[in-house]
Amino acid sequence: MSQPFELRRLRDFGQTINDSFTFLKENFKPLFKALIIICGFFIILSMVSMILTYLNITNVLSGPLRVDLNSYDASYRPVRIIVLGLISAFFVILTQVFIMLVTLCYISVYLQKNNGTPTLPEVWGYFKYYFWRVLGSGILIFIILVVATMLCFFPGVYMFPVLYLVIPIIVIENSSFSYAFNKSFRIIKNNWWMVFGVIFIMSLIVGVSSSIVSIPATLFVRGGMFFSLKAFALPAMIIISVLRSILLLAYVLPAIAVCLCYFSLSEEKDGTGLLDRIEKLGKPDENQSNLPSEEY
Questions:
Q1: I want to staple 292 with a disulfide (CB 3.0 to 4.6 A). Which of 20, 115, 164, 174 is the partner?
Q2: What is the CA angle 190-13-110, rounded to 5?
């Protein structure tokens, strides 16, 4: 019988990467069931917006080379493509945020149940509970990153791993944004490169996977400049958009990895896992599904 996956323990860079895949493998079915059911609607919206964007780009590039600049349609098409592109990017980012939130809620329930498998109603309950807090925190994080990057590029780079830990702290500890922000700075001290490296590698894996799927779309759009491919445009764009939308689920990996970084850093700074094990000595093993108390 395999040992239960231990969240609260020290991990180095390699262990964090390996354990992220291990946790995903051991919880693949219940985790992806929650992701598909809760995030499915937004994945479909991302898919539809991608299809419309690709089709409009293909129609423009496969059209006649000479365009009447005074034509209303000619001046409107680039604007329409930009608008559709922005809408598509918005839905993709929103879907990524929801995938991260569902993953963190799953891990939080997993921890509360002492490594017990979370059920869909439990994950959905946590998702509803943290939705607005995480959404508001996400907007604040975006503003802070934009301001830091505008002041100078390097402060923005430095803040990125720090702010990446804020949402996991909010969900795992049921804390406020200010508490999570301060704790993120405290626990990442002397470990910035490790957290940055984990986020970079996991994001690179997801990015490369997405890029591979995007290659056929790029070739198809470029080919439309020289050949008439309108007959194949709709089925090709649907297939490519479906694949790219499904690959959005791969963002579960960075979410798991950054969560394991949080557990490792908390264990190093506060010894939370050791204290929890000492506190449970002599007590019966109970699966707790209630939300944790507030921490400030």
A1: 174
A2: 100
Q: Supply 105's token pair.
A: 């809620």
State the amino acid at position 122 in one-letter form: E
Rounded (10°) angle between helices 72-112 and 120-151: 120
One-letter amino acid of 264: S
pLDDT at 17 over 50: yes
Instruction: Check whether 26 has a pLDDT greater than 50.
Output: yes
CB atoms within 10 A of CB 291: 14
Angle at 192 between CA 186 and CA 194, to 5 degrees: 125
Q: What is the DSSP string of 188-208?
A: TTT-HHHHHHHHHHHHHHHHH
Position 5, amino acid = F
> How is residue 58 written in tokens?
């293909």
**pLDDT single digits (tens) 73-83:** 444 467 777 77
Name residue 160's beta-bridge partners: none
DSSP 58: H
Q: How many residues does the chain have?
A: 296
Angle at 40 between CA 39 and CA 44, to 5 degrees: 120
Q: pTM of this prediction?
A: 0.80
Choose between 76 and 166: higher pLDDT: 166
